[in-house]
Amino acid sequence: MSHPEAVVDLLALLAYAELQAFDQMANDARLAPDLHRRAMLSEMAAAEIVNFRRLESRLAALGAEPQAAMRPFVDVLADYHRKTEPKDWYEALIKAYVGDGFADDFYREVASFLDSPDRQLVLEVLHDSRYATFAGEEIGSAITADPKLANRMSMWARRLVGEGLSQAQRVAADNPALAMLILTGVGEQSDLQGLFKRLTAGHTARMATVGLNN
Amino acid sequence: MSHPEAVVDLLALLAYAELQAFDQMANDARLAPDLHRRAMLSEMAAAEIVNFRRLESRLAALGAEPQAAMRPFVDVLADYHRKTEPKDWYEALIKAYVGDGFADDFYREVASFLDSPDRQLVLEVLHDSRYATFAGEEIGSAITADPKLANRMSMWARRLVGEGLSQAQRVAADNPALAMLILTGVGEQSDLQGLFKRLTAGHTARMATVGLNN
After folding, report:
1. Of A19, A39, A66, Cβ closest to residue B42
2. Is the ipTM of this complex over 0.90?
3. Per-residue pLDDT tens over the stretch B134-193
4. Do the domain assignments include residue B20?
5. A73 touching B, CB under 8 A?
6. Of B191, B180, B13, B3, residue with least CA distance to B107
7. Is residue A214 domain-resident?
8. Of the residues A15, A199, B60, B83, which has the maximum number of CB atoms within 10 A of its CB?
9. What is the CATH number of the domain that holds A182?
10. CB pair distance less than 8 Å for A42 and B52
């Protein structure tokens, strides 16, 4: 059972996150070492816009004004991206792989608290797994070729997660309806500690897959 | 009747132009005055990637290595975009409207010299007319609101066309097979002067539509 205001908040957060991720990944594509890789990251970016449009339509169908609904999330997402600006191709890939992986796991959990059709919509706009596969393979083979990279990249991944969690707390503090939706949903199904445990386990597994330490 | 090497050159030029246009428009979206307009330009950018992938697949099907085939066009397109970097939202819109409009007219002419399925493919990857409509309406209403803008924007449009033609000459000089395809195709159907006349007429009509002088 989900509160309408909180659902609008959630869809608006997700929509603006897609728009901002588009911007960031389109820009990061310039860091690619060749045209094939540049095209791949550009394509990952482009996929975000398709999802953005779907969320925007749903917001309008719910009677929300999409721009106004997204406004509360503009600064917090801009801050996240400003503080985690990739300096090279591997930082960009890890940001896409670790950051999006973590965020997707979180949204997947929250989707289970929503009613249809919003539940289905949120699940459908999560990132295509072939992009995670691409990013994971790129990172994995780079670390195999240059094991020294692993240490720096592990630190970078920790910084991404830390920054993401800190911005997530800010979102929760500034958007009580959304925070209540999550807390109530979590309370019905398990507990907040269980949620964090699952998110951390997913993150650790992703890191291990590509040869990074958590 | 089209020469295989020239067809590969043409599709590679078009493919890299799409990838570069994605990059430029995704970046220009940051100049948008609000979220709605930013999303619209981001979506225009994303559409380029879908077209890029179609051209890349066709290049591979023709036995070409897409990256190698695109390489001769990297510098010339980078130069065009570097020399025509928009300074504000209206310069970005005019670049999309005037530049893409001119380029699309040119590719539409060249498509008629190609055999199937390349002719059809080139026609299909030209820009969706609803984006030109959006850009045209934005420019038109900005000029109605602030007539002084028209003069500066007309000069900007002239610069875009001048820069585009100068880079096109460089492409022709560096890629004789492609230049021959166009000259032969033009020769069979009409004459080079006729082609330029049609391109100029299309450009003048686009400018007039939004209240700009050629």
Report:
1. A19
2. no
3. 999 999 999 999 999 999 999 999 999 999 989 988 998 899 888 888 888 877 767 778
4. yes
5. no
6. B13
7. no
8. A15
9. 1.20.1260.10
10. yes
